[in-house]
């Protein structure tokens, strides 16, 4: 059933004297832009399968209980903004009629979960049933017009087709992932403390592997180590001899975005805390159950194929029994870009300004040859090119700009730029675009990124920080780290709750209730 | 696989100079007793399928977001107590050898959920899969000796065999239930705000039915009304015309434990707030989907069999389309009592003191003829009677006391008493028993219950309170209500967090993020 919008709906007051800006996505780019646009000037409508924004830098803290999950969330609907919201997947867009097809997704079973494939089609059904007990079912469709469209749908998690990772790894992209990680880690300890659990199985359950040596993987490892060293040590003293945290990365070094000095500092800290950092390591597969050698082994240490742990297979180490694998590496282009937006057009169309003419009949949006991201110009407007060249990128014969369609965030790449796919870039693009649209100054300005530096928490109240102001590491960097994220968090509600949890957990320890 | 305990397990330091007290259950009775027992005198071991204690009076607040879920929880394992813990179901007990068989339940899929039937056997598998995507699988077994056994396993939720209730109703017994209710209520509003949702479906989705007019049902209705009136009204202003809260009870009056005056005050408040209280109403069934009459109806208002809502069938009103039914009535005896403890014994056995001799060969624990609860004497010790009379209760020919087995909480009934199955009674019994065991004074004392009164929140910052000190209602009672529960909450962590959330939510409104 498809209904055209405006269709009698009471949650939306269509205001005809305003342009309607439809924002696809509620992440760093979409959520920020929607909040910054002037509601007097624009009717802002966010369409996203997720009803909230996640303050990603604090996810690792919530996954270990340093913070409560909700302190990293901001609902899109707020009594303090005029932003309108529909929970749904953008299904397709027509640049000619300027209409959008939306699939409603209120009961979206993947809500709060990292997506590793097109949720509505390829997502592993078993995994989904394990997690949510839900059947992949298509939601109702409805259509919607836009005056301006902003594509900020973000990326999925990349598993590089490694067998078993999609089904068995734990990701750290959304709050539901953080919740799964926290529950899993706690149940590993609880299971290890049972009299029915053998020594060898204790060792496996309490071996935690983190794949990916970027800031997320490093910060999660650091937070996990803090939790174990500060709290689990008091609650399960006799299990401390068994636990182990290992960080694996295919690259030769971790934290590659930091200077060698800071990266080395981080690794030294990890070594001192007993966290292994294994670079140039390759994951071959991940499956449920114990390593074969242990199943075959004799004696009391034998571990029958027990599904209570996982087996991580590494090219360099062979099979390793682990309690949990946290996968924090790689981005996969959102299928919405490659599938839904791939539709060819015949130019001229009203909304597209041809910059370099071409006699080509069929045109497509231009995508990045490697990442597959949408190419935009320095106004963040989507570029079109003749279909046969759309994937070439750079200067080609035939080029048009869709003036009322913008793309930003991890799914978009600005031409002639090498900005990383980070929250900082997404956030700056969103603030810049909102400002230009509010002031109608976009035609006289071009976006430029101002690198404010990078930070990472490395555990035991230490952090590293690199910026134009110079490098800082240790306790001071940690204080700046906390201060910065506290200042950056969106709502006053969270500005009150976050330090309260920091204080309460420092005083009494983190909560280990599992539900 | 069954292993005898002590078996090499590192989370337990068996201390042979202390008696081992095994406590079954982590609710008001079990958790309180375990904390109060002197660790220098006893080795306290809690066995429960749930790793935390739930402060039940605050559950309704957490289900509506007035408080964060964790503020109603206390983990059984704490760095501040010496209580040892195994997450498992007590499977069977042998009073002669004083051993206990435990089925480990760390991955217990029903963790945090109200049980409506024997979780490990009769629990509806579909429901379980819907909720947890888990297969009912039997956990490993291990055995354990006890010197003293305390049975405090509590009760299940009673659905009186009403068709569809077990599968489709929302309960409010554990924190997982509260979480489900909160997510469901929020998604009802989100779905109602979609352009694809018809007027009639909005009305159904936003009709919330509460079955059971006891304090829990009334407090939940009040909290739900507060949430809608204070927050949803600002976030979904155009949906306010559709919502409706109705409380159903089979009895002629609600809040029967209160004086008529206070009960009337509560009902007047509800009427003023637009909450229907429908007494003498009988639920016939509950199913997924819309009422038939609407599926058959014509025109734009037709609602095809849409699984997004439920149909509640009442003897008095016929089919009513609702967004959610919260079932807060009735207790069902824990199957552990009726099944696992039903094993017959041949007395004399060492641990049982015969008070009234009998030539009966087979003896059983004495259970209450109506509720099926374990009968105890005024020392909370379990009573045995000849099997053919075990269910008769009261004075019979043949009676013995098992000196080292105690029963308290909702699963136990003290003979010649009419104490209600409330947290207050369970809590007082636990405190009393801990005191007697710590001082070895149990043989010279008998338990008596001191009624401290009853309280209930009735919405809009008003409560009712009835105690020996007299009746109070309105704002003052509300202040006492909050003060009392704040004072009663177990940990300082929650004593800090609870008022923080009261304050933050009063200031900024409740959080509506759904995950």
Automatic annotation (TrEMBL), chains A, B:
Cellular component annotations (GO), alphabetically ordered: mitochondrion
Residues of the External alternative NADH-ubiquinone oxidoreductase-like C-terminal domain: 453-511
MF term (GO), any: NADH dehydrogenase activity
Domain (FAD/NAD(P)-binding): residue spans on this chain: 20-336
Top-level taxon: Eukaryota
SUPFAM superfamilies: FAD/NAD(P)-binding domain
InterPro entries tied to this protein: FAD/NAD-bd_sf, FAD/NAD-binding_dom, NDH-2, NDH2-like_C
Pfam family, one: NDH2_C
UniProt keyword Glycoprotein present: no
UniProt keywords, alphabetically: FAD, Flavoprotein, NAD, Oxidoreductase
PANTHER family in UniProt: NADH DEHYDROGENASE, NADH DEHYDROGENASE (EUROFUNG)
Family: Belongs to the NADH dehydrogenase family.
Protein known as: FAD/NAD(P)-binding domain-containing protein
């Amino acid at each position: 059933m498809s209904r055209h919008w405006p269709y009698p709906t009471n949650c939306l007051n269509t205001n005809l004297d305003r342009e309607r800006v439809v924002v696809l996505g509620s992440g760093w780019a979409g959520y920020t832009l929607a909040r910054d646009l002037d509601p007097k000037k624009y009717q802002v409508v966010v369409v996203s399968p997720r009803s909230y924004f996640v303050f990603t830098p604090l996810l690792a803290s919530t996954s270990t209980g340093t913070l409560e999950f909700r302190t990293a969330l901001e609902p899109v609907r707020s009594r303090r903004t005029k932003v309108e919201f529909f929970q749904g997947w953008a299904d397709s867009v027509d640049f000619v009629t300027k209409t959008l097809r939306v699939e409603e997704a209120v009961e979206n079973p993947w809500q709060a979960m990292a997506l590793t494939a097109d949720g509505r089609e390829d997502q592993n059904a078993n995994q989904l049933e394990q997690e949510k007990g839900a059947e992949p079912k298509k939601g109702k469709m409805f259509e919607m017009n836009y005056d301006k469209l902003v594509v900020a749908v973000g990326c999925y998690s990349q598993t590089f087709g490694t067998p078993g990772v999609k089904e068995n790894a734990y990701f750290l992209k959304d709050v539901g992932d953080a919740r799964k990680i926290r529950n899993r880690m706690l149940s590993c300890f609880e299971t290890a403390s049972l009299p029915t659990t053998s020594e060898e199985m204790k060792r496996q359950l309490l071996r935690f592997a983190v794949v990916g040596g970027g800031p997320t993987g490093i910060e999660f490892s650091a937070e996990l180590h803090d939790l174990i060293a500060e709290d689990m040590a008091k609650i399960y003293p006799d299990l401390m001899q068994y636990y182990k945290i290992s960080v694996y990365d295919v690259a030769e070094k971790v934290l590659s975005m930091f200077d060698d000095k800071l990266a080395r500092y981080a690794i030294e800290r990890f070594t001192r805390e007993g966290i292994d950092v294994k670079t140039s390591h390759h994951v071959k597969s991940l499956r449920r159950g114990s390593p074969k050698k242990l199943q075959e082994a004799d004696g009391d240490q034998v571990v029958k194929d027990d599904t209570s742990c996982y087996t991580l297979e590494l090219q360099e180490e062979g099979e390793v029994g682990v309690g949990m694998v946290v996968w924090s590496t790689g981005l996969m282009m959102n299928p919405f870009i490659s599938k839904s937006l791939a539709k060819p057009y015949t130019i001229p169309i009203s909304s597209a300004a041809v910059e370099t003419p071409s006699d080509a009949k069929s045109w497509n949006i231009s995508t990045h040859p490697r990442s597959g991201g949408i190419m935009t110009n320095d106004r963040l407007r989507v570029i079109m090119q003749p279909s046969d060249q759309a994937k070439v990128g750079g200067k080609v014969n035939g080029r048009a700009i869709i003036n009322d369609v913008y793309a930003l965030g991890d799914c978009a790449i600005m031409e002639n730029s090498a900005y990383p796919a980070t929250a900082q870039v997404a956030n700056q693009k969103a603030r810049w675009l909102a400002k230009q649209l509010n002031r109608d100054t976009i035609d006289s300005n071009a976006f430029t990124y101002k690198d404010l530096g990078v930070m990472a928490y490395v555990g035991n109240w230490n952090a590293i920080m690199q910026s134009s102001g110079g490098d800082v590491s240790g306790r001071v960097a940690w204080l700046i780290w906390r201060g910065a994220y506290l200042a950056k968090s969106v709502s006053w509600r969270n500005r009150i709750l976050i330090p309260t949890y920091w204080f309460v957990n420092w005083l009494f320890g983190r909560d280990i209730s599992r539900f």
